[in-house]
Design brief:
145 residues, mainly alpha, two-stranded antiparallel ribbon, 5 helices, 62% helix, elongated
Length: 145
């Protein structure tokens, strides 16, 4: 009986890494879909044609996963960050990762488009919930050992 318990535990431990990876992947993708849905609902009406241009992409390099929500339409970035003085005004109070993303679309600083953020606000709104949910779901795997 004791040997059976040890064998069961060893079997569970050998699957734990893959189970954790799947839980993390599934949970992150679930939240990315929520973030995208909220962002699309917040997209200004005059930019609604951009909705179909967004994609969620998951890639794995070694042991590192990267999940991105993106659009191939540059206009999506100009709606999010604004241009010219409006971009400067909006970005002055934003985290570095937002500024770093916006800088990729800088042309000459003379644009006149107001910032109408929709994607990063959705991301930051869901981030703490995603972190808590990840912790809870991974903890469940350990509790089942």
């Amino acid at each position: 009986m004791c040997a059976k318990g040890i064998n069961d535990f060893q079997r569970k431990m050998s699957r734990l890494g893959k189970d954790i990876e799947k839980v993390i992947s599934d949970t992150v993708m679930e939240f990315m879909r929520k973030i995208l849905a909220e962002a699309m609902a917040s997209l200004p009406a005059e930019s609604s044609h951009l909705k179909s241009s967004f994609k969620i992409e998951k890639e794995k390099t070694g042991d590192v996963y990267r999940v991105s929500i993106f659009s191939d339409e540059e206009l999506a970035a100009y709606v999010e960050f604004g241009t010219g003085i409006w971009a400067r005004a909006y970005l002055s109070g934003q985290p570095k990762e937002v500024v770093d993303e916006a800088i990729k679309f800088y042309i000459n600083g003379k644009g006149t488009t107001f910032a109408r953020p929709y994607l990063f606000p959705a991301y930051y709104r869901y981030l703490p919930f995603m972190e808590r949910e990840l912790d809870a779901r991974v903890q469940l795997l350990f509790d089942r050992l």
